[in-house]
Amino acid sequence: MDEERSFAESVDDFRRLEAEFVARAGDDEWDVRETRRRIAEIILTVAQSKRPPFEVCRQVWNDLVRLGFSGRDREYVMTWFYADCCRYDENPEEGLAVLEPLVAELERGLEEARATQSDTDFYEYHLESLVKIRDELLAQQRGEPIPGKSTRRLDEAPGPTPEDSGGAP
Questions:
Q1: DSSP for 75-94?
Q2: Looking at the structure, do residues 52 and 7 belong to the same domain, yes or no?
């Protein structure tokens, strides 16, 4: 991802790439769907990084949900990206709505794995990041600041003026 390009420019680049690969796939429906899915995942990743307006992030998320996820692990990772967009734009309820069912599912899977003495790495790995962002969203919902995390409101707030600091620069 080119840091110099805007979100819209990046999306245009990825849509051109998508069109090229979809054309190459021809009548292979699985290939077409997987290409669209992967491009949607990349665009959500770019949205989380470039921070377009929240409605744009929501639309990208909805497109990805409509396409479906290629696997549970991809769903967990993409949900984290969307939840982080929700956190940044101070929409904790929306982030929690997508996170909480997955956290509950992973917690059940972890308990089942422990009960059968199966490998727990998959569950623990995904739970760590999803629980962390869930806790951040819950804190945000309670009106608490999240140390080390910015929000759109904070990033777009006007900076201090010389008058605020008591003198000239």
A1: HHHHHHHHHHHHHHTT-HHH
A2: yes
